Amino acid sequence: MAWKVSVDVDTCIGDAICASLCPDVFEMGDDGKAHPVVETTDLDCAQEAAEACPVGAITLEEA
To answer: Which stretches are transmembrane?
Structure first.
């Protein structure tokens, strides 16, 4: 099953923990904010990144 990953860029503080934990799913943009790269089937990695986000800017939903 694929998962849609979203980052609320208004909430994101650019901590980059998500990109460090799950580089296949997140990248840091030129704006200093995290952006999802692709939908993912690696729910464990995406959930770990979402839980690690200090401001709760990451959401996951079934694609």
So the answer is: none
pTM, 2 dp: 0.92
Instruction: Consult the annotation and say whether 22 binds a ligand.
Output: no
Spatial CA neighbour of 18 closest among 1, 29, 10, 41? 29
**Tell me: the pLDDT tens digits for 2-26?**
999 999 999 999 999 999 999 999 9
**CATH architecture for the domain at 3-62:** 2-Layer Sandwich (3.30)
Residue type, 29: G
Q: Is 45 marked as binding a ligand?
A: no
Q: Please tell me the number of Cα atoms within 13 Å of 38 on its side-chain side.
A: 10
